[in-house]
Each structure stands twice: as C-alpha cells, then as structure tokens.
User: What shape does this take?
Amino acid sequence: MTTATKPDTLQNVRRLSTVLYWGCALAIIFQFLVVPIIWYVPGWIETSSSQMTVSIADLHALSGWQKYATMLVMMIPSLIMAYGLNHLRKMFRAFSRDIIFQPAPIRHLKVFGVALLVQTLAKPLTGAVTSVLATFHRPAGERMLSIGLGNAEASTLFLGALIIVIAWVLGEAARIDDENRSFV
Amino acid sequence: MGIVVRLDVMLATRKMKSKDLAARIGISEQNLSLLKSGKVRGVRFETLAAICKELECQPGDLLEFEDDT
Assistant: This one.
C-alpha cells in the first residue's frame, strides 16, 4: 500500500478481492467436478465442452481400467487449473487483507499464469490420450488418435503469457514500493 | 556506505529531543530513529529541508561523507 493510493480504491480492491476469493473457491470445486459431470450427467456434454476428442457414447462404452484411466487423463487439465486457481485464490485473500505490493501475492499470480499456459498446452495432449484410451477396445482399424486445437487455445495461451508479464511488472512495482518505504 | 548522519549531534547542539523534531517535521519517531542511526537507504529532499528548517542548519551539517577505504 502506498500513500499515493486512494483509500476508496483500496476499499474497492478489498471488497472485490473477497468476492473473487470465493469465486475462485467455487471454480476449484467445479474443476474437480467437471469430468464426473461430463461422464454421469447426460446431455451436459454438448453445451459444456467442445474440446472433447471422443463421443460421449464411446466414453459410456468403457469399463474397468479403461474407464478410470480415461477419466483420470481427462481430469489432468482440470487438476492443473485447480492448482492455478488455488494460487489465484491465495492472491485475492492477500489483496483482501491489504497485502498488495508484496512478493507473495505477485508470486501467486505468476503461478496462475504458468498453470494457465501448462493447462492449455496439456489439453490437446490429454485429449489425444483420451481418444486412444476410449477407442482402445475397438478392433484394429477403428481405433483413433484425435487431437483438438482451436482458436480458444491460442487465446488462452495469450492470456497466460499476459498474466505472467503483468506479474513481472507487479514484481517491479513491489520492488519500487519497498524502495520508497526505505526512504524517510 | 560512506554517508554518516550527524543528526544526533545537531539535536544535541540545538537541545532538541528526537520526539519533538519528529512531531514538527511530520514523520514518525521510528523513522527519525532509523535516520539518526543511518539505517535508511535514502532521505527525501522534503524531509531534509524540514529538518534543516527546524534545526536552522544546512544539509552539510547533517550529512558527512567518510571514505571506508
């Protein structure tokens, strides 16, 4: 916090950060539930995920180890995102407690940016593995390796890189703030 | 660092307490204490001017360069 910052702005930062803290908590829960929902709630898949590299019918046809292995692989991007969101949640908690220009919340933002990049890069790979696992039981010639790449991935990669750059800039701001504090 | 703060000497010369000076120039006693002990990275011109005004002295009376080598 600097003396030049308006008290109203800080109050807004605190208030909005508290809301976003709980938003992140809900998003983390959603990340854990999204794959089971895709699997067990019929009809949800069409509107929820255009990233699916296999059909829901193929998924439902799976059994035994294939079912659980596919589910686990499908969950990898969600788990990476949950990890990133947890850091984002910690950042908002710090902001809501007036810990703003400090290294800790900035590090959390950087980790979120990296998680976003890793998740976006992991998505096509896990999608490909999912398609292999889901069609593994089919006879030779009908098995499939499907990779899904779209404009959404490019946008998310850009967003991840943007967040990392912003985190670097904030790191510099924190350093300057620390320097200002050491002046009397 | 080679800059030595002679604020304590000036305060003694002017028979003024740190607490009073801090109150007059509008900084905390803690910060003034840090300045007196030289444990700060820098002094703002604004602070330096306020101290000089209150103690009726020049910046050179408060700061001195000592070669470490």
In short: Chain B has five helices and two strands. The first helix of chain B runs from residue 7 to 14. The first strand of chain B starts at residue 3 and ends at 5.
